[in-house]
């Protein structure tokens, strides 16, 4: 029996970029002690007060089918949050609650892309982006950014690749690079979208994790609220990764169609999870800052460690829970380096190539273990890289 090309071609080359991660997990299952610096999973789990709210809601009976668009309470809460942060008028009619940000990304592309349309995205990219676009039936087309530009996108390069495109997907603060797009960058992107009549899909799941600069939602820019779909999530801001609760915010007409899509696909998010999300969002900035604080602290520790050596380069880590490290001085690719590091020191990191060709010669380090072990692992990475670089020099 034949399977659809849409499902068999989600990952273009048959791989999904997670080989090192899977190998590290197999080693753990085999009894090896592996230091994992791979995925964006908080080492401090969901706050007990959020879990108590979730438990209370479930015990009070909110365990049946919830409203497909989301509960009025959560939609109102998300709308109020975005309006307060951006100044853009937002109501529940602009909000669809989704089973996590990933479902929101897929729904957003289904909303704006017909089969065969081109969906643009930036390289480096979160590993699911091209597959998400292909899953919506569109053609995924990457535009490279560069380490020399601190992975800030250039509007002229996007414009050069935009023929046939109907959408552009961006992510700031960015996973995997840690870049926060500045006003000049976003103004250029907004102008391009208006001139090219593109939908902008803005992945803003790391909006509470900004260490340097300011998060600007492109929905706030002139002429952009009517052509921007914002994807958000409870996963990173409130350490609720397993709860699978996110949203899409956009024009009312789009949201109305996305509600119809949800009726035929996900059929909503459990009510007790939505109640917990409402509680968490209403807890305010203090809780969000508490959850972001370990990563802010580890980023400062990392800068200190990396400034004390000259082999491993740090791409400006302005936001999110990751560091993008330049290991090109070793002469190895990111994949070769990550595999060698896992073999010799049982430290697992993500190769830059997992996130596209623009990150070749880099590794992504997740700041997701306790401070002491994180600093020890990062110091080991630097020493390991320095030894490899010396061998590289000696061989040339």
Unreliable segments of 5+ consecutive residues: none
What are the secondary-structure elements, in order, as H or E?
HHEHHEHEHEHEHEEEHHHEEHEEH
* CATH top-level class of the largest domain: Alpha Beta
CATH architecture of the largest domain: 3-Layer(aba) Sandwich
* Largest beta-sheet details: 7 strands, mixed
What percentage of the residues does DSSP assign to strands (E)? 5-15%
InterPro entries: Aminotransferase_I/II_large, AspAT/PAT-like, PyrdxlP-dep_Trfase, PyrdxlP-dep_Trfase_major, PyrdxlP-dep_Trfase_small
Domain Aminotransferase class I/classII large: 35-377
Organism: Ruegeria profundi
Cofactor: pyridoxal 5'-phosphate
Textual characterization of the structure:
It catalyses: L-aspartate + 2-oxoglutarate = oxaloacetate + L-glutamate. One of its GO terms (molecular function) is L-aspartate:2-oxoglutarate aminotransferase activity. Keywords: Aminotransferase, Pyridoxal phosphate, Transferase. The protein is α/β, with parallel strands linked by helices and 396 residues long. The chain has two domains: 18-45 and 286-395, Aspartate Aminotransferase, domain 1 (Alpha-Beta Complex), CATH 3.90.1150; 65-278, 3-Layer(aba) Sandwich (Aspartate Aminotransferase, domain 2), CATH 3.40.640. It contains 13 helices and twelve strands. It has helices spanning 5-8, 19-29, 48-59, 72-86, 101-112, 129-135, 155-160, 183-196, 252-263, 271-282, 285-307, 334-345, 371-395; strands spanning 35-37, 95-98, 118-123, 139-144, 165-171, 199-203, 228-233, 246-249, 313-314, 322-326, 347-351, 362-366. The strands form two sheets. A seven-stranded mixed beta sheet has the order 2-8-7-6-5-3-4, with helices on both faces. α4 (72-86) packs parallel to α10 (271-282), α5 (101-112) packs across α6 and α11 runs parallel beside α13 (371-395). The radius of gyration is 21 Å and the shape is globular. The termini are far apart. The mean pLDDT is 96.
């Amino acid at each position: 029996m034949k399977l659809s090309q849409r499902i068999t071609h989600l990952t273009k080359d048959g791989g999904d970029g997670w080989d090192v991660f899977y190998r590290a997990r197999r080693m753990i299952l085999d009894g090896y002690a592996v230091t994992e610096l791979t995925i964006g999973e908080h080492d401090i789990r969901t706050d007990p007060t959020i879990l108590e709210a979730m438990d209370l809601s479930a015990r009070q009976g909110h365990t049946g089918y919830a409203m497909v668009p989301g509960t009025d309470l959560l939609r109102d809460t998300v709308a109020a949050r975005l309006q307060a942060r951006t100044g853009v008028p937002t109501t529940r009619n602009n909000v669809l609650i989704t089973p996590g940000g990933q479902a929101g990304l897929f729904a957003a592309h289904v909303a704006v892309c017909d089969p065969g349309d081109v969906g643009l995205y930036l390289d480096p990219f979160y590993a699911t982006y091209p597959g998400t676009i292909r899953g919506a039936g569109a053609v995924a087309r990457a535009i490279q950014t560069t380490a020399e530009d601190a992975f800030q996108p250039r509007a002229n390069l996007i414009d050069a690749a935009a023929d046939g495109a109907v959408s552009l997907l961006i992510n700031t603060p960015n996973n995997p690079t840690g870049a926060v797009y500045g006003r000049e960058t976003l103004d250029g992107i907004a102008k391009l979208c208006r001139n090219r009549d593109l939908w902008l899909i803005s992945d803003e799941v790391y909006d509470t994790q900004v260490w340097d600069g300011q998060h600007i939602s492109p929905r706030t820019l002139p002429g952009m609220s009517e052509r921007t779909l914002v994807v958000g999530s409870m996963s990173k801001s409130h350490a609720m990764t397993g709860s699978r609760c996110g949203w899409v915010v956009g024009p009312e007409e789009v949201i109305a169609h996305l509600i119809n899509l949800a009726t035929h696909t996900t059929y909503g998010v459990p009510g007790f999870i939505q109640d917990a999300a409402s509680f968490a969002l209403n807890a305010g900035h203090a809780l969000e800052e508490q959850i972001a604080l370990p990563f802010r602290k580890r980023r400062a520790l990392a800068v200190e460690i990396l400034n004390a050596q000259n082999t491993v380069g740090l791409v400006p880590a302005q936001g999110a829970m990751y560091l993008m490290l330049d290991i090109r001085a070793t002469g190895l690719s990111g994949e070769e380096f990550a595999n060698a590091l896992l073999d010799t020191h049982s430290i697992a990191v993500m190769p830059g190539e997992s996130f596209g060709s623009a990150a070749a010669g880099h590794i992504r380090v997740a700041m997701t273990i306790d401070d002491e072990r994180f600093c020890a692992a990062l110091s080991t990475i630097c020493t390991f890289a320095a030894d490899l670089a010396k061998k590289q020099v000696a061989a040339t």
